[in-house]
Design goal:
Beta-galactosidase, Chain A, domain 5; 11-stranded antiparallel beta sheet; 8-stranded antiparallel beta sheet; elongated
Length: 771
């Protein structure tokens, strides 16, 4: 019942709030070019919300301090009702937080100490200057100072230390130092790229300060003047955010800024003009939901980090709005639900998400957590599949956004394993191959998309793969950090599972941002085209291309055939109009050669591993390397046309590995499949004869890779060049031949009566062969 109440209120119709009327143009506004005086704080009170305004103004004329104390006390009491957490219950909530998350104390103390060790309370807000250690403050560090996230850690230390006044004094002094810097013009503006009032940084700071305010309001050392100075600062920053965000622009920087604007408007609705702030913020946020959440539900920048960040943004606004009976457009429900659906589509059997593009929470990590934000989805929509991926209980990241009754209701939510198989986010360009949801099942994501509006966070990984099997990152991707000197390296192709030509990486023309914080983007990335996407009960097939090497005169196609229960065969095919080139495959992991140069193996601590086996007729060279403990294996072939046919075979134990040397056996059986290679000899399977380089079979199904002819019974089919084919055989012995190619192909069929027939077949229709 509590969950149902939450959903109904959260998505209430877009109606005016009782007692809060739309603002007229003549209503006085909070200025954005200066901070309010004490008199203006009272003059700008909205009499429709603060009904005793006239009495307070009269009292201010007679005794200013008494009136200001009364205003602070009123706002203090109102905050207890309006914010996520009632500050009057903060000691009990903190005791519960400490009991639930005992490990967090070390982190809070460490981060708070880092901040106080770098900056005095009366901080400086304009570069260049040196920190308390004598080091030059970098642009990256200044941006984090502007966000004030480690000052939030200090608010926790205040409670850990029984209400010690030092964190309160530090915070109040630092907040006032920013106000003084603004009045003196001694702060970084947006022109240099590091503006402390830039939408994202200012919005982040506002949201942190709102929580700090709630955690400090019960403290005797946080006096009425501190409280009013913070309100003054929040209103001033909100006025700046309102001015800077009149119209929509792409990106999460604006989103964070208008979320903060909406929150200030709700929490300090006592001041004139704030309802207009809320309406403006919600209008801009609605456009972000419409334009930046793709039709398939994923955030347009294609990064898990930014997808989750936007879920948090929208949730915080919606949660605060529903607690205060503010309106939220009904259309938000469907959009937000699609964002959780997209996360389920990408999810792995171990209830994590793969690393995709600029994921930045834990540098060098090889997966993304999803339990925290999926808990919010399960609460909002009472969805047992969402709850399957949620944490067992509330997480630290969302604990302070929830009321007691919401936390208590978590235990009543049901869990249900998803029934979803292989699926895709076609608008975003992620294609997911999976064979189940058990702990050891196989999972692979193909990246085949390019953000049209803002590819800033994309990596050089077009048609790249990220794979998980047997509980291990068998083909990993890595999280990054903008401030690290090798961010550019970890954003490009040598740390991806991709193909390259002549050692040329996919990301070209690195451009650092003008603020010099370490973040940067590419002038050029390949544009992809998805050719084929087929999903079946026991196999999937993907084919795609990109133009990353068109300027070299090379056309490129990647095919991925998933044999569920066995592994993947990856075909990288290159066609050159400009002579010979070096063609390369890059595989992430730490590999050793196994008896010959066409077979490499990575092994993990539990004895499972990944065999990478070259099945083609060429003889590639290979090399391994590592950086920051992340290894790779690169195969290289030279030619005009060129191709790799590569088996990716995950094994769960020593006995299940590929026996060596494979070149002597030429056969592998696993998961109900049998794979054989030809080495120049024709291969047979169930009456089928072919010159294919690789033949894979299972009851009623045969794949012939690199085949220029096949024959069955009295019929033979010939093609002008080697192709990849699938043969589906029904119970009556009839077979349908499907070309796994990017376009219809020409064939010549020789029937058992000696007649020839020519035609074209495509991957959808295929060609029927009699028994």
């Amino acid at each position: 019942m509590r969950i149902k109440w939450l959903v109904l209120v959260l998505f209430s119709s877009w109606m005016p709030i009782a007692g809060v009327l739309a603002e007229e143009i003549t209503v006085p506004r909070v200025p954005d070019d200066r901070l309010l005086t004490d008199a203006e704080l009272i003059a700008l009170l909205d009499p429709q919300v603060y009904g005793d305004k006239a009495d307070l103004e009269r009292e201010f004329r007679e005794d200013p301090e008494k009136a200001l104390k009364a205003l602070a006390e009123y706002l203090r009491a109102a905050y207890a009702q309006r914010y996520y957490v009632d500050w009057r219950n903060a000691p009990n909530r903190f005791a519960d937080y400490r009991r639930r998350f005992p490990e967090r104390e070390v982190s809070h103390r460490r981060l708070a100490a880092i901040h106080t060790g770098l900056y005095p309370a009366a901080a400086r807000w304009k570069l260049p200057y040196r920190n308390l250690l004598g080091d030059e403050v970098t642009a990256y560090e200044l941006r984090h100072l502007a966000r004030q996230h480690k000052v939030l850690d200090m608010a926790f230390v205040h409670h850990y230390d029984g209400g010690a006044p030092a964190p309160v004094d530090y915070f109040s002094t630092q907040m006032r130092s920013l106000n003084a810097a603004f009045e003196a013009g001694e702060f970084e503006d947006d022109n240099g790229g590091n503006g402390v009032y830039e939408s994202f940084r200012a919005g982040y700071r506002v949201m942190n300060w709102l929580q700090i305010h709630a955690l400090f309001l019960g403290s005797e050392s946080y006096d009425w003047r501190d409280q009013l100075d913070l309100v003054r600062s929040l209103l001033h920053t909100a006025a700046i955010l309102q001015r800077k965000n009149v119209s929509f622009r792409y990106g999460n920087h604006q989103t964070r800024g208008v979320v903060a604007l909406a929150m200030v408007a709700i929490l300090f609705r006592d001041f004139s003009g704030t309802r207009a702030w809320y309406d403006q913020a919600m209008s801009i946020l609605g456009q972000h939901l419409e334009k930046e959440v793709n039709a398939d539900g994923f955030q347009f920048e294609r990064s898990v980090h930014y997808h989750v960040g936007d879920i948090y943004n929208y949730f915080q606004v919606m949660q605060l709005a529903q607690l205060n009976n503010y309106p939220v457009p009904p259309a938000w429900r469907g959009k937000l639900e699609s964002m959780f659906d997209a996360a389920v589509t990408l999810a792995r059997p171990d209830r994590h998400l793969p690393v995709l593009q600029d994921d930045t929470d834990r540098p060098w990590a090889e997966y993304n957590e999803m339990g925290d934000f999926m808990l919010l989805g399960s609460m909002l929509f009472n969805d047992p599949v969402y709850n399957y991926f949620a944490g067992e209980t509330v997480a630290p990241a969302v604990y302070w956004w929830l009321r007691d009754e919401q936390i208590a209701a978590i235990g009543s939510l049901e869990r249900q394993r998803p029934a979803l198989g292989s699926d895709a986010l076609p608008d975003t360009g992620y294609y997911v191959m999976r064979d189940g949801w058990a702990a050891g099942d196989h999972h692979l994501v193909i990246s085949a998309g390019l953000s049209a509006q803002k590819p800033d966070h994309q990596h050089g990984d077009m048609l790249g793969l990220v794979a998980h099997a047997n509980g291990q990152e068998i083909l990993p991707n890595y999280q990054v950090r903008y401030s690290l000197p090798d961010y550019e390296h970890f954003k490009n192709s040598l740390v991806k599972n991709v193909a390259m030509v002549d050692g040329l990486l996919q990301g070209r023309g690195w451009k650092s941002n003008k603020g010099g914080s370490g973040f940067g983007k590419w002038e050029r990335l390949p544009s992809p085209e998805v050719i084929t996407w087929l999903t079946r009960d026991d196999w999937d097939f993907f084919a795609g291309t990109h133009d990353g090497y068109a300027d070299l005169g090379v056309e490129y196609v990647r095919k991925v055939l998933f044999l569920k229960g066995l592994g993947w065969i990856v075909r990288d095919v290159f066609e050159s109009s400009s002579g010979e080139h070096r063609y390369q495959q890059v595989w992430q992991g730490h590999y050793s050669p196994e008896t010959d140069d066409k077979h490499h193996r990575a092994t993990f601590a539990d004895g499972s591993g990944l065999d990478v086996l070259q099945l083609g007729r060429g003889e590639p060279s290979w090399a391994v390397s590592s950086r920051r403990g992340k290894g790779n294996l690169i195969y290289t072939l030279t030619g005009a046309p060129g191709e790799f046919t590569t088996l990716l075979y995950p094994f769960d134990s020593f006995g299940a590995r590929i026996q060596t040397p494979f070149s002597g056996q030429k056969q592998l059986s696993a998961g109900g499949w049998t794979l054989r290679t030809g080495a120049g000899e024709d291969l047979q399977s169930g009456g089928l004869l072919t010159d294919a380089a690789v033949l894979v079979e299972r009851a009623g199904l045969v794949f012939a890779l690199g085949a220029s002819r096949v024959s069955r019974g009295g019929q033979s089919v010939a093609f002008g060049q080697p192709l990849d084919l699938a043969l589906e055989i029904d119970a009556n012995g009839h077979a349908r031949l499907l070309p796994l190619e990017h376009e219809a192909v020409e064939y010549t069929l020789r029937a058992d009566d000696g007649t020839n027939r020519r035609g074209r077949i495509d991957p959808e229709g295929g060609l029927l062969l009699s028994p």
